[in-house]
Amino acid sequence: MTTDLKVGVIGLGWAGQQHLDAYSTIDGVEIVAVAAMEQDLLTAAAEKYAVANTFARWEDLLELEGLDAVSVAVPNFLHAPIAIAALERGIHVLSEKPIARNGEEGQQMVDAARAAGRVLDVAFNHRRRGDIQALKGAIDRGEVGRPYFAKAAWLRRQGIPMLGSWFTNPTLAGGGPLADIGVHVLDYALDLLGEPEVLAVSANTYSELGPRGLGGNAQYSAAATDHAFGVEDFATAFLRLEGGATLLIEAGWASYRNPDDEMNFLVYGTDGGAELRVAGDPSELRIFRDNGAENADYSPEVGESGMHLGVVIDFVAAVRAGEAEWARHDGSLALKRTRVIDACYASAREGREVQL
After folding, report:
1. Measuring CA to CA, how many Å separate 264 from each of 42, 86, 132, 189, 248?
2. Among the listed residues 82, 45, 49, the one whose alpha carbon sits nearest the alpha carbon of residue 63
């Protein structure tokens, strides 16, 4: 189906611009409105994408007649109020990750999507990387057998998103790197492992560099303000999965390590293993296998990465699929991710394992 859709984008930072770029490539999608506090970004978006309606207030955008769907690409504390208001108006929603600051807010969003009978999707773009898709194909084909141990991480050396920005305020962000980039790591790891249930977590968080004014980097978006550094700058978690498997997660904005950002995943299985390391282009992906007494390790072919384009294409397809499909896209998977993050923060605060 190529049903015409009128869409709006709320928030014009890096993520919002990815949504605009993606919508602009899809036949039958018209970007009719954008909303942001920055007038220069509104003007630039209106000119680049021929957008007829620009708003400083997201509330005004949602009142626009005939709006079918919106992307919500704003700080975490605004995800729930904007998404719920849109859903209550019968507008489909694609939100940036995490779904919300915590599971309680995420549940409210899911409830609103179900009550409205509309799509609520969340942008987990890294599971759409070409290398992760190639790795998933190998695991799904049984090339590692039954996975029993995995670890995954996203680590930066100097990657705090603008010291003093909303990212470093726990009330606005809900957490530090665990909530920001760690939720991506959790998402692609559980997706690669076949979506096992997380039974329990044991986690710890550290705030060693950010409070001293170290580890900041403006390239990760967000404008500097006067927020104190109130979140972690490094987190680690041990997850017990159904079936007896375990998963280790690390997420760090700042630590004394190799200067390159690195995203990785390692899995040991009963019949093989695999390792992905992303630290530049191209990434390194190896599948470890035996052929009798001989090693049969290989690097699978890696296709193109979908990233935000893939997220937006899938969102538009779900909306166009009609009511029978909408119930399958209610944000519940993203809510499960945030419930796990909540449990990790609780474990770190209380110094104990937390059951889910």
Report:
1. 36, 36, 10, 10, 11
2. 82
The two three-digit tokens of residue 117, written as one number: 């009978």
At a CB cut-off of 8 Å and minimum separation 6, what does 351 contact?
none
If we measure between CA atoms, which residue out of 316, 322, 328 comes closest to residue 94?
316
* Residue 293 CB neighbours (<10 A): 5
CATH code 3.40.50.720 region(s) in the chain: 5-125+307-329
Query: Of 23, 125, 26, nearest to 34 (Cα)?
Result: 23
Token pair in block for residue 161: 């998103």
Place of tokens 């015409």: 4
Q: What is the CATH number of domain 5-125+307-329?
A: 3.40.50.720
In angstroms, the CA 281 to CA 288 distance is 22
Tokens matching residue 52: 């007829």
Would you give the end-to-end CA distance of the chain in angstroms? 40
Find tokens 């000119």 and name the residue. 47
> Which pLDDT tens digit goes with each residue over 172-203?
999 999 999 999 999 999 999 999 999 999 99
Cβ proximity of 337 and 186 under 8 Å: yes
pLDDT tens for each residue of 204-220: 999 999 999 999 988 77
Q: Smallest Cα–Cα separation from 72: which of 2, 119, 3?
A: 119
**DSSP single-letter state for residue 143:** T
Give φ, ψ of 25 to 5 degrees.
-95, -5
Asked if 73 and 8 count as a contact pair (C-beta separation under 8 A), the reply is: no
- Which class in CATH covers the domain with range 126-304? alpha beta
Residues 291, 297, 300, 305: what is their CA dihedral angle, to the nearest 10 degrees?
140
Q: What string of DSSP letters covers 273-323? A: EEEEEESSSS-EEEEE-EETTEE--B--------HHHHHHHHHHHHHHH-H
pTM of the predicted model as reported, rounded to 2 decimal places: 0.96
